């Protein structure tokens, strides 16, 4: 094969090569920006509780300081900030494992109804503190069996319910509803709290993303909860979405795979003669 225009051919090849290199460089730049943002976010999240702890310790160390009650109060506050740091480290650990694909999904068959009740029970005290009612809207007589990683789904529910309490309304409620789809089940967590402005919705599941709402800033959190939730659901090849109206409330819904095997008759007795 003899080219009619060899110079043009070489020119096209060089252009194609340059296009590919540009794409690679853009990709590296995006990754680099992500790394920078990630580090600055982490250091910001760590600084706030660390400075608080340092402040309380220095106050108590002061020669003039002799108020025992106040010392106790400061130590309680410092300890709360230590907790916050621990949660942050736990979340970071979790998310890095999820993102590097180190975390395996251990599928098992379980009744989602029972799991919801179990999680509600574990969060009852916290809900009481926020004066929020937890409601499980049972629509189906039979429990629904799903195929998923039980521990991870507990974490998803805890994170979503925890948010519904943090950003909920005092005297309000958090409800969970189940919807049976063809071979999936949709789990929805609904609150009647502060809601989320529409412009924030597309960014909600990004790591460290928190809305500007002043309340949101006053409420403790790492901005990692929803990113973890999204990772877990996507690792199950399922979907998560949110709908919300500012000052009316939010609904977070995720799907799970229904288990094909029936849970009703797990053991068929063997008849002996
Ligand atoms: P965190 O709660 O630690 O800030 P999340 O990743 O769980 O982090 O949530 C990210 C942000 O999304 C929160 O800071 C808050 O602004 C908003 N958000 C999450 N859940 C709700 C909710 N149920 N109602 C209102 N805002 C919410």
TrEMBL record:
Keywords: Kinase, Membrane, Phosphoprotein, Transferase, Transmembrane, Transmembrane helix, Two-component regulatory system. One of its GO terms (molecular function) is phosphoprotein phosphatase activity. The chain holds residues 82 to 354 of 354 of the full protein. GO terms for biological process: cellular response to phosphate starvation. It comes from the Bacteria. Signal peptide: none annotated. The keyword Disulfide bond does not apply. Its EC number is 2.7.13.3. GO terms for cellular component: plasma membrane. The lineage of its organism: Bacteria, Pseudomonadati, Bacteroidota, Sphingobacteriia, Sphingobacteriales. Residues 41-260 form the Histidine kinase domain. This is histidine kinase. It catalyses: ATP + protein L-histidine = ADP + protein N-phospho-L-histidine.
